[in-house]
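Extended Data, panel c. Modelled sequence:
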Amino acid sequence: MKVKVLYFARLREKFGVESEVLDLPGEHAYAAAIVDMLRKRGDPWAKELGLDAGYRMAVNQTLAGLVTPVQDGDEVAIFPPVTGG
């Protein structure tokens, strides 16, 4: 299963990549599988996507959590929280 992952703002700068296609095992997965795969790359991935790190996710442009299912061809965005004012 392939998903396109987009990185925004600070995360794009830290990771040095704007987007990539990840190949996830199996036909069904959750957003948590993507985060786990990325954390295993080590720093800065592990730090920026750690349990206490502040980031948000969206699947197909809808805000999502770690338990959100992902399917082949989905677009997953990972970004820092945004504040307004």
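DSSP finds three helices and seven strands in the chain. This feature is highlighted in the accompanying rendering.
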